[in-house]
Specification:
By secondary structure, the chain is α+β, with helices and mostly antiparallel strands. It has helices at residues 13-20, 24-33, 51-61; strands spanning 3-5, 8-12, 40-41, 47-50. The chain contains 3 helices and 4 strands. The protein has a 4-stranded antiparallel beta sheet with strand order 1-2-4-3. The chain is globular, with a radius of gyration of 12 Å.
Amino acid sequence: MTIEINGQRYYRTSEVCKETGISRATLFRWLKEGILKQSRRDRRGWRLFTEDELKKLKAETNQVIEK
């Protein structure tokens, strides 16, 4: 369930993983590697992601790399 704060919609970690089809481990690794800037957190310390960040992660998951 997304949450709205001051007119901005945010997604929790589980929602981002479900929407993008990646695991929590992959999401956290990508955060560590800097694919996204560090996410925001709510008062409980849970990560929150914006719609733009969700779109960026979706684009990352759909990349095809030729070697």
